[in-house]
Amino acid sequence: MRGPSHSNLAFDVCCDLLCNCSNISINQSGVIPMKKKIDENQIFEKHREEILQQVKNDPYAASLGIELTAFEAGFAEASLTVQEHMVNAHGTVHGAVIYALADHVFSVACNAYGRTSVGLSTTIQFMKAALPAHRITARATETTRNFRTGFYRIEVFHEEDRIATMEAVAYRKDRYFIDHGGQKEN
Asked: 25: helix, coil or strand?
């Protein structure tokens, strides 16, 4: 037990027996001190180029000719020119190509803070067709982000025409893929 106070006795027993939290220190006020929360926007600003190099290193996106055209914290834009071999049996761009472009900007946007993030789920809606030689562009925008998950809206355009939208959820792992000074996050 940590002390003779009866008011903390129940907490101590609960913590030690049920939670196996005997390694948590409690200050004299009975409060568990919290570690400093990491400001991921500062990480982005400080390590932008290093993060950019990591997220650009995507062999599959490169094989499709996807070009990253904008990169900010929680935002990414990329484009590709539809090639003849990227069409379906109807002569329009294959849905998998549109999805790959949307998924790429989702990946870039959710990893923009240097923290390893992976897709949990996506839902895509195809609205219009694109054709060979069309230049299509996808934009991913973060709508909400918390400790474990990030939520993104992706829109795909040919010129001014929206051809697809995607909603996506990312799982944010515990580790950062850049060295941001060894800070720990709650």
From this structure: coil
- Quote the CA–CA distance of 55 and 69 in Å, as a whole number: 13
Q: Say which CATH number the domain at 146 has.
A: 3.10.129.10
Q: Are residues 130 and 45 in the same domain?
A: yes
Q: What is the mean pLDDT of each run of 10 residues along the chain (186 residues)?
A: 46 43 54 68 94 95 98 97 97 98 98 96 98 98 96 98 98 92 49
| Number of domains, the chain | 2
- Taking Cα atoms as reference points, which of 106, 166, 96, 153 lies closest to residue 130? 96
Shared domain for 20 and 93, answered yes or no, is no
Query: Is-above-0.90 flag for pTM?
Result: no
Q: Which residues contact 10 (CB under 8 A, 6 or more apart)?
A: none
Amino acid identity of residue 77, one-letter, is E
- 158 and 94 in a common domain: yes
Rg of the chain (C-alpha set): 23
